[in-house]
Fold this sequence. Notes:
By secondary structure, the protein is of the alpha/beta class. Helices cover 36% and strands 13% of the residues. It is built from 10 helices and 7 strands. It has a 7-stranded mixed β-sheet, sandwiched between helices. The site of iron/sulfur cluster (SF4) has 12 residues, from helix 8.
Amino acid sequence: MGKNNLKICSDLEDIMPPEYRELVASATYGKENRGWKDIGSAKELIEEHSLCAGCPEAIAFRYVLASLPNPEDTVMVGSTGCTSLVFPHVAVHNIHSLFGNQNAVASGLKRALKLRFPDREKDVVVLAGDGATVDIGLDMTLQAWFRQEKFTTICFDNELYANTGGQESGLTQKGFVMKMAPQGKQFNKVRMPEIARESGCAYVAILTVSKPNLVERVLKNAVLIARTIGPTYIQIYTPCILEIGKQSMEGLQEMRDAEGPNDRFAFREFITDEAKAFLADMDEKKKAAAAAKIGTAAPAGVK
Length: 303
Ligand SMILES: Cc1ncc(C[n+]2csc(CCOP(=O)(O)OP(=O)(O)O)c2C)c(N)n1
Ligand code: SF4
Ligand SMILES: [Mg+2]
């Protein structure tokens, strides 16, 4: 499939905007082993965005897009919040849902795509904030998992409602005072990864975006497991530097500070036995294919 979806009809090429031509020339669609290292050169991995300067949601978004195994056959579902500011700049199919409804919309979409394209894998990936995922949309999030809907839910956890000026969410830390919640959070951060595991997710991970290799591995696992086995959930710390009073260059350090061994964003991963066996099988097949490729390659000097 690759870039066929994007290609410009040759008669129209000269009148297409230069940005579109550049997108087609540099797009990673169809590229084997595309990943986070492509973000400096591929136009579809967001050149511009309308988030605050230095907001970690921007780099998190880029890593997520770069890690999708099959972007040309992926539909992302967004929700209201700072995350929704990025979707207009993204060259991946996406739908904006009503705040909180994203997992209900994704459920219908995944089923419709299955009926419409029975012979082609279509991935659905939800990307929404903690307010949308864990507060106002919690019912929709959980019910999709209970029904074993086969898509990935990604929560960009900045531990508050950022887009509306700083209200608390279920994922705010206890005691944290926000601009619009002056008394501070009265109870602990909800343990969403554990809830996801108990609610039927086949793969769950919590992490920051300080290590791009890790983000890429987790994303690929989550999308491939969701495609084959069942729902998957990823929670990524994307601190709101505006709310916590950090400068634009300080987001990375903030993430590193929050991922120590016993910290709230220490990397944790849960995977069912079935999903583990699926990944092991996929690895075996990849190794066998690579070995076969070497075996059939012509010896050096032979044409
Ligand atoms: C149905 C509905 N309820 C409330 C709102 C107002 N609203 C817009 S964004 C937002 C908070 C978003 O918080 P979160 O999901 O954590 O995303 P963030 O902005 O932090 O990235 C709220 C309450 C809305 N747009 N629609
Ligand atoms: S308000 Fe916070 S989360 Fe939203 S774009 Fe600005 S820094 Fe990022
Ligand atoms: Mg938030």
